[in-house]
Amino acid sequence: MPKAAQKTIQEPSRETKVCYEADVVVVGGGPGGHSAAIAAARNGAKTVLLERYGHLGGMATGGIVIQIPHMSDGGKDPIIAGLAMEWLERLDKMENGVLRPRNQDIGSSDPKLLKKWNRFMGNTINGKIKHTAWVDTELTKCMLNDMVEDAKIKLYLHSWGTQAIVDNGKVKGVIFESKSGRQAVLGKIIIDGTGDGDLLPSAGAEFDAYLDSTSRSSMLALVFRLGNCDYQKFCEFKETQPEKWQELVKGIADAAGTRLLPLPTPRNDVMWVNNWIPNLNCMNVEDLTTLEVEMRKMMRKGFAFLKKNVPTFENSFILDTASQTGTRGARRLVGEYVITKDDFAASKKFDDTIAVFPRMGPPSDKEVKHVYIPYRALVPAKIEGLLVAGRSFSSDYFANNMANLIPHCIAMGQAAGTGAALAVNKGVSPRKVDYKTLQKKLLEQGVPLPGVAIDKAK
Ligand SMILES: Cc1cc2nc3c(=O)[nH]c(=O)nc-3n(C[C@H](O)[C@H](O)[C@H](O)COP(=O)(O)OP(=O)(O)OC[C@H]3O[C@@H](n4cnc5c(N)ncnc54)[C@H](O)[C@@H]3O)c2cc1C
User: pLDDT-derived band of residue 361, with 50, 70 and 90 as boundaries?
Assistant: First the structure.
C-alpha cells in the first residue's frame, strides 16, 4: 500500500530579532558544550552559551549520571585532565561535592586502599587505584555556573537552539526559542554542543544517525535517585552474600522489566539507579514520550522489589528522577576524519591528536593502552564555521559508543573551544587551524596528551 502523503502546513516568513553577537556561539551546556565555551572564552573569544534547561552540566547533572570514569589507566599519571580535573578540584572544595581517590593514591596497590575503592565500580584496575570520580549533581550545577561567570561568558538558559543560520555554505548563527520568543545569536564560529547534533541537519552538515541495536548508544534511560540508603552496608551485604545478591539482581530485573543498577554518590545515604531501555531513539519524540512513561512504571515496580527484598533498602525512598532523558547516542557528524572501531583496536595515533583516552574494553586488543582523537573529528567535512563538542564527534557507532563518556566529552569540548578561539584570532576557518599550535595550547591548559609527539618549540 502506498503511504499517504504527509500532511504539512506553510508557516509565514518572519523577521527575527538578533539579541547577541559574539565570536563563538556554543549551543548546549553539557560536558562538551560547557567545556567548549570555557575554553573559547579563556582563549580570548567573546563567547555566548545557550542551554535548553535552567542549569548546566547535561547528562552529568540533569541526567544524574554522576560517575566521571577512566581518567587514568592504572598508572600514577592522569590520562585525561585539563578541564575535567578542574571540575574535580573545584568540587573538592565543596562538602560532598565529589568522592574520588586522592591524587597521590592513583596507581597505588596498597591493599587497604584497594579494599576501600573496590567497592566503587571503575575505581580499580588490575590491582591498582584508577582515577574515577563520583560527583554531586546540584553542587556540580553551581560549580559550572561559577566557571561560566568567571570566564565572562554571556549565558542564555531556558533557550532551545532550533536552527542554524547558514549563508553560502557557512554557519553564522543560531535561532533559538525561549519564553522571550524566537531570537537569533550571531557568531564567527558556531559549536554544536547539544550532544544529539541538533544543529547538524539545519546547518547542512553531513551526519550519520545509525544506531546499532546491540550497542549501549541505542538505549534510553530515566535515571533516578534513592534516599535514605546505606551504600557501605549494601556493599558489605554484596561481599558476604554474592550469590544471594545475584539472585536479587535477577529479581529486580524481572520485577521492573529491565536492568536497574544501584550505584553510589558522594553521600553514603543517596544512590543513583542506572537503567536501560533498548531500541528507543532519542531523535523521535514518540520514543522519548514512551521512555518517560514506561520507565516510571518500571522504576516503581523495580523499587518496590528492591525495598522489600534487598537488605539495607528497607527505609529508602525515591528521591527524584532525572530532568534530562538519558540519551547515549544520536547524530554523529561526518567530519574531516571519521574515527572507526579499527582505529581504536589499532590504537591509531594522529598528527592532529587533541585528546587521549585510556582503553575502555573489548574488542580492542589487550595491548591497546590508549585511544586517540584527531581534531578533524570535530570539523565537518564540508560546511564552514561549525565545530562539534561532545558525543556527536565524527565516528562510527562503535567508536562513539566507547568514547562518549563525560571526561571524553569534556576533553573534546576543550579542544573544540580552544580551536575555535584560535580560528577567530587568526581569522581563519576552523579547518585551517594549525594543529600544532592547538596541541601546544592544550598542553598549556593541563591536557596531558601522553604519547603524542608535540613540537614544543613551535
Ligand atoms: C543512562 C546513562 C548513563 C551514563 N552513565 C555515564 C557515566 O556514569 N559516566 C560517564 O562518563 N558517562 C555516562 N554516560 C554518557 C555521558 O553522560 C554522555 O555521553 C555525556 O554526558 C555526553 O556529553 P555531551 O556534552 O556530549 O552531551 P550531554 O551531556 O547530553 O549535554 C548536552 C547539553 O546540551 C543541551 N541541549 C541539547 N539540545 C539542545 C538544544 N537544541 N538547544 C540548547 N541546548 C540543548 C542539553 O540540555 C545538555 O545540557 C551515560 C549516559 C546515559 C544516558
Answer: low
Asked if residue 404 lies in contact with residue 32, where contact means CB atoms within 8 angstroms, the answer is no
Question: What is the domain count for the chain?
Answer: 2
Distance 259 CA to ligand 1 centre (A): 20
pLDDT in tens, 389-448: 999 999 999 999 899 999 999 999 999 999 999 999 999 999 999 999 999 999 999 999
Of 274, 292, 327, the residue at which a domain comes to its end is: 327
Domain around 362:
18-210+328-458
Pick the atom of ligand 1 nearest to 62's CA: 49
- Rounded distance between C-alpha atoms, residue 108 and residue 258, angstroms: 37
Residue 15 CB neighbours (<10 A): 6
Angle (nearest 5°) at CA 215 between 374 and 293: 120
Provide the strand spans (E) within 292-405: 317-321, 326-327, 332-333, 353-358, 370-374, 386-388
Q: Are 27 and 191 in contact (CB under 8 A)?
A: yes
CA–centroid distance, 67 to ligand 1, in Å, is 12
Strand order across the beta sheet in which 224-227 lies: 260-264, 271-275, 224-227, 317-321
Residue with CA closest to ligand 1 atom 6: 65
Among 304, 327, 350, give the residue marking a domain's end: 327
Ligand 1 pocket, 65 CB below 6 A?
A: yes
CA–CA distance, 101 with 113 (Å, rounded to integer): 9
pTM: 0.97
For residues 282 and 336, membership in a common domain is answered with no
Spacing, Cα 195 to ligand 1 middle (Å):
6
Distance 210 CA to ligand 1 centre (A): 18
Question: Does one domain contain both 354 and 344?
Answer: yes
CATH number for the domain spanning 265: value is 3.30.70
Best residue among 194, 274, 325, 331 to mutate for probing ligand 1, ranked by most atoms within 8 Å of CB: 194
Residues 121 and 53 in one domain: yes
